[in-house]
Amino acid sequence: MKKVFLIVPPTGKYIREDRCQTPIEKLKTVALRPPIDLMYVAAAFEQSDCACRLTDFPAEEKSWDDLRRAICDFRPDILVLSITTPSLALDVKAAQIAKEINPAILTIAKGAHFNTLDVDALKRYPALDAVLRGEYEITCREIGEGRPLSDIAGVTWRAADGVIHQNPARPFCDNLDTLPFPARHLVRNELYIRPDTDEPQTTLVTNRGCPYNCIFCLSSQVAGRKNRVRSHENIIAEMEECITKFGIYNFLFRSDLFTADKRWVIELCEKIIARNLHVSWVCNSRVDTIDAGMLSVMRRAGCWLIAYGVESADQVTLDLMNKQVKREDAVDALRLTRQAGIKSSIYFLFGLPWDSESVFETNLEFAKELAPDFIEIFYVYPFPGTPLYEMAVKDGLLKEGEIPTAAYDAPAMPTEYLTREELALWRRRFLRRFYLRPGYILRTLVQIRSPRTLWNYARYGLSQLIDLWSAGEK
Question: Are 202 and 241 in contact (CB under 8 A)?
C-alpha cells in the first residue's frame, strides 16, 4: 500500500484554491478555509487504496521542524504540495526536505501556476519530480494506482535522466458527481470557522467553470468556460455527510460563479428547504446574475451572505477589465440583496495598470452608496497566463518572467501613475474612511443578535482599527 502525505507547507495562511490564491492574515473579511483541493486529491488517492495523511501546517500553527518530523514518522512514498504562485519559491522547501530524508520519494505539486509555467517550475526546482495541470482528481487516482507517469494526462514530470516531459492535457470532468467527496476525515475541521459565530464551516464545491473572461481572473484557465454543475442530490448528500459525520452546518459554496444558472440555483435551494437541513451558507455572484425571486428562495434555504466582485465604480475600468457588467448592476444587486435580508460583501480591485489617485475617491464614494455589510480591497495580481500579466509586461510594470511575491493585501506591481508605496497607503485610507464612519458602526451593531457575534465583531473591529491606523496617517 502506497503512503501519500498531502500538505499545505508552513509558509503562511493562504486560500489555495487555484483561482483564489489569497494570503489572509492581513485581510479582515476573509476567513481561513480548509484545503479543499488537497481533500479532493486525498479522496482520489484513497480510491486507489493508498494510505493518506493530510496536514495544513499553517492552520495548525506547525513549523518546518514539525514537517520534517512528520515525514520521518509517516515515511510517505508520495508527497503532494499545495502551492500558490506568490509562495511557490518558499513552498518547494517542503520537497527539498522530503528528498533529504528519502531521495526516492515522489514529490508532486499542485497549483494553477503549473497550467502555464509547469516546465519552468521543474527546471527551477530540482526537488520537484512532477507538477499537476488542470483538474487533479482523476490524475491522482491514476498515480495512486501505480500507472507510469508517462501514461497519465495532466502531468508534467522529470524522468530519471533529468529530461522533462509534458504529457497531454486532461479534459475537464463533465460529470462532477463521479468525483469522491473531499476527505474531511483527514483534516481538523474545527480549525475552519465561520468568523462571526465561531462555528465550524467547510467549503463545498457546487459547480466549476465560468463563461466570462475577466483579464485578471484564472477561472477560465483552471476550470474552463463551461458551467459544470453537480446534481442537487449529490450536493445535498455531501451536506448531509457533513452534518451527520462532522457536525458541520455552515458552508461556503465554492464555485467560479454560483449563480450562473438561475434555475439550477432555485431548484437546489428548494431541495435544501424540503430536506429541512437547517444549514447556513455563503456564496459568490456576479452583480448581473440575480433577481428578487432567486434571492428570496436563497434566503429561505439558509444563505446569509453573498460576495460580489464589484471591482470598480468606473465604467471605463469595468470595460477594460472585460467585466461585462454595468455600474448600475451593482446598485441594483446590493439593493435587492438587502431587501431579501441577506448580507453582502463586496470586493474592489486596486492597482490596475491605468489606476491613478482619482480611482480611489471614485470607488470610495461608490462603496458608501452601495452600503454593503463588508468590503475588502484586493490589489490585483498578474497571474501568468492571464491578459493582465501580458499587459503588465508590455507596459513595463513587470519584467518578463517576473513572479511577484506580494499579493492581494500588498501591491504586486506599480501602475502607470502610482508607485507600490503610494498604492499601499491608499488601501488603508479607503478602508479607514469606509469602516470608521459612525453610521456604518451603528448599523452593524444593531444587526447583531448574539453575545458571541458581538464579541467577534468587537474583536475583528479592534484588529481592523489598529491595522488601519498603524500607517501613522491622520
Answer: no
Percentage, residues of the chain above pLDDT 90? 84
pLDDT at residue 246, rounded to an integer: 98
Separation between Cα atoms, residue 250 and residue 169, nearest integer Å: 35
Question: Residue 303 and residue 259: Cα distance in Å, rounded?
Answer: 13
Q: Provide the residue type at 54 as one letter.
A: L
Beta strands in 319-469 (DSSP E): 343-350, 374-379
Nearest to 347 by CA among 441, 284, 260: 284
pLDDT of 196 over the 90 cut:
no
Identify whether the C-beta of residue 420 lies closer than 8 Å to the C-beta of residue 411. yes
Distant-in-sequence, close-in-space partners of 470: CB < 8 Å, separation ≥ 6: none
Q: Quick one: cell of 186?
A: 483527514
pLDDT of 474? 39
Report pLDDT digits (tens) over 131-148: 999 999 999 999 999 999
Backbone angles phi, psi at 399, to 5 degrees: -85, 150
What does the block give as the cell for 178? 463521479
Q: What is the pLDDT of residue 444?
A: 79
Tens digit of each residue's pLDDT (9 = 90 or more) over 428-442: 889 889 988 888 888
Provide the percentage of residues in the chain whose pLDDT is more than 70.
Answer: 95
- 123-to-29, 85, 156, 164, 374 alpha-carbon distances in Å: 37, 16, 11, 8, 43
d(CA 230, CA 39): 17
Predicted pLDDT of residue 19? 87
Domains located in the chain, CATH noted: 3-166 (3.40.50.280), 193-469 (3.80.30.20)
- The position carrying cell 503532494 is 80
Distance CA 431, CA 303 (A): 26
Residue 381: helix, strand or coil by DSSP? coil
